[in-house]
Target: L-amino acid N-acyltransferase YncA
Amino acid sequence: MVDLRVRVAGPQDWPAIWPIWHRVVASGDTYTWAPDTPEAQARALWMPPAPAVTLVAEVDEVAVGTALLKPVQPGLGDHVANAGFMVDPDRAGGGVGRGLAEATLVEARRRGYRAMQFNAVVEANTRAVGLWRSLGFEIVGTIPEAFRHPTQGLVGLHIMHRAL
Amino acid sequence: MVDLRVRVAGPQDWPAIWPIWHRVVASGDTYTWAPDTPEAQARALWMPPAPAVTLVAEVDEVAVGTALLKPVQPGLGDHVANAGFMVDPDRAGGGVGRGLAEATLVEARRRGYRAMQFNAVVEANTRAVGLWRSLGFEIVGTIPEAFRHPTQGLVGLHIMHRAL
Model:
């Protein structure tokens, strides 16, 4: 079990988050953002103002993952959370993703969210789909051919959901 | 059949769009935006920069409806469109919604989108759900209890989709 500390990130954490963000998005196989998204745009996307909150996961005070937790809808739908997760590719498979996800679920519950919804889980990303299922998420539906995968062509995007 | 003209809206059209936008959102039964959303925020939401495009539907040069057409995802998912529609409540049931939706589907196809996806169709809004079904949309899935309806409590939000 990895000794992971997950905390709310501030502006001072961005320099440690950006290399992770960039590597994950540049791979082009898990997020819809353009693989060459520049740093300033990435920061605006990943560290938006409240009620969104950015989390950072650390091992021995080194950033190894990050999450973004926010309402999936504004106003009359803001009791359902949306979240995104990124793990340093060098740490993949080491339990960081699961630990970060569990901490984010706790944080979402603490903030009063009633459920969590993912809008765009790449169906070819079977590791992520398996992780979400093991954490209680169900596939609500799949948008066919909604993602241009770098090696698999057009693949579906799952919408996943669980109550909190 | 209503004699509807649908065209791309510019900044000069906002004063005619805002009263429709405000009445629709203030009702709190079809959109998640806060019913008291102020005008400046509404304008930013409904007239975002390209690649989004705002449409206005007119009868005898009077605005009777409006649509927002944009990518549902950025980057690697931007071949799927998202759209929102609003009709002057005084014109409800007169064919404006259908005419505007049909014109928006044509515009989406013209812009190269491969499909259209709605993220948050209030399941209690049976007229809208029926209209989308009649236009070839299918319910991909439903997020349970995702919308705080003013009279019906927590109701689901449908995700709907059709190819173009």
Observations:
- The mean pLDDT of chain A is 97.
- Residues 79 and 113 of chain A are 5 Å apart (CA to CA).
